[in-house]
């Protein structure tokens, strides 16, 4: 139940981030909705395809699509009358990354795969929606920016695996990694934190 | 049978649009064919993966691939000797969008999913091939252009759902939405029609 | 067994090519690893999804992921202290293309699909990982460059089908097309070989 509500919240915030990104591209209203839908369901869809979870979550329960369309429309209306708070796209994206990473890891664990795959599935679930959004909008993917992005997702998914091993099914195993990912992203954005970039000795590769 | 022939026609026109787009990129002959194939089968493949329709349509019936390769080669030969008619890429794309949206919606309906998902699957089927073509060719996706694109697809898929509800399995339920999508796209291109873009109050998001 | 070792080698060289490409983009360490993983498993994952081979190869056997992460880390360390040999990215990519094309064709053949689909699956398996790498890194996909790329993959997959028909299961049916693809790519890069580009009579399409 908590997982279900978090999942709804996750698709809603990614729908908002999709709508905000698409809105900057002068797409028409329905184009914005399509991008919002793809952003919101992209990560979970790839997760379900890879794990062969059938039917895909939004086919099994169309409530997701209703929530996504409503969130996208609300974003459209809000943005028409009031300026979105500064940095709202990055915050929505950080929140979606945190939610989807943990949900993805949890779903993978439920499918009985090994720990390294739980971490990878959490990361792919977390980043795929945003990557699809950026590729479709011809933006440089957020994942490419120097600040801790995939790192936050991998760290959170790993902490989830550890905590869930110690206390299976506990709320802490869900909330702690979510908080960690969200905090890492916000800190990275505000303080311009980053792990050292990989610099090859010579660009001539 | 009608569905089958329309599907063949759909892959052929998307193969033409893929070949024309790829041809402008100075790819070699086989690169053009690969892009044509991916453009033509992309939408239906994603549809079949999401709905778990197995085997995928072109694996079940390789005739599709023969038609696609033939259409791509014919486009190559034609374009070598005669100038393609003005706007031919946009017309081929509009026709493919119309065909694939309706076929995608029809396939989804046959799988017994709910109406909102029928509309979404029609739209994804219609736009995915062209999006893959544009992303692979490093073009700005057509879906991003301001003129009615996803809008046409959503409108057509919705009309399909309504008509098919009134008169299940009728030809009209197939032909009317197809005509609508095609007409909307052509009108949008010729008359520079567009629904109002979503403009956030402030770009600072 | 030979297939298994070649597959491991294939993911390792694509992990190296992913790490080298990502490294040029100033991603952080974990971002590089994510790109390396996606580059290395992308082709085989799409193959397994399309053929409905379950579970996906790297979910069934996480050794792949360990090899990929190790190869990416080794690339990071090496590149930090020594300059990667000139052209190393192109050579790693050529080797990965050769391996994955043949492995993809072989897997498709084992699934009992028709010859044209064996060739297409080999090509998609071979090029998809590199295309994902390039799209995620916002590079112009290698497949778009004029030199023989998809052509090499199609030629190799076709030769595989022919040889495997003459001598089913022979080592030659694996090694000859692999050598052909690798040689074609190296020759194309060094000698600036290319098949004539498709030039439409008029760009006005």
Can you put this structure into words, describing what you see?
The structure is a homotrimer of 205-residue chains. Chain A has eight helices and no strands. Chain A has 205 residues and is an all-alpha fold. Chain A has one domain (2-191). The first copy, chain A, starts with a helix and ends in a 14-residue tail after the last helix. In chain A, 58% of the residues are buried.
Shape summary of chain A:
globular
Classify the secondary structure makeup of chain A into a structural class: mainly alpha
* Quaternary class: homotrimer
The figure for the number of domains of chain A is: 1
Helix tally of chain A? 8
- Strand and helix order of chain A: HHHHHHHH
Which pair of chains forms the biggest interface, and how many residues does each contribute? B-C, 42 and 37 residues
Please indicate the percent range of residues of chain A in DSSP E strands (runs of 2 or more): under 5%
Q: What Rg of chain A do the Cα atoms give?
A: 17 Å
Q: Describe the biggest sheet of chain A?
A: none
* Mean pLDDT rating of chain A: 85
Separation, N- and C-terminal Cα atoms of chain A: 50 Å
Poorly predicted spans of chain A: none
Count of strand segments of chain A: 0
Helix content of chain A: over 70%
């Amino acid at each position: 139940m908590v997982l279900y509500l978090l999942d709804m919240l996750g698709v809603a915030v990614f729908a908002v981030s999709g709508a905000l990104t698409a809105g900057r591209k002068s797409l028409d209203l329905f184009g914005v909705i399509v991008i919002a839908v793809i952003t919101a369901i992209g990560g979970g869809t790839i997760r379900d395809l890879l794990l062969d979870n059938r039917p895909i979550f939004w086919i099994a329960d169309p409530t997701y699509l209703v929530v996504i369309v409503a969130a996208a429309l609300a974003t459209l209306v809000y943005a028409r009358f009031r300026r979105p708070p500064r940095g709202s796209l990055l915050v929505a994206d950080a929140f979606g990354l945190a939610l989807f990473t943990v949900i993805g890891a949890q779903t993978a664990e439920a499918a009985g795969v090994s720990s390294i795959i739980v971490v990878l599935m959490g990361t792919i679930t977390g980043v795929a929606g945003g990557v699809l959004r950026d590729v479709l909008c011809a933006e440089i993917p957020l994942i490419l920016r120097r600040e801790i992005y995939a790192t936050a997702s991998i760290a959170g998914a790993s902490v989830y695996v550890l905590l869930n091993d110690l206390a299976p099914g506990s709320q802490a195993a869900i909330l702690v990694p979510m908080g960690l990912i969200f905090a890492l992203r916000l800190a990275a954005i505000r303080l311009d934190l980053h792990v050292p970039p990989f610099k090859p000795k010579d660009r001539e590769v």
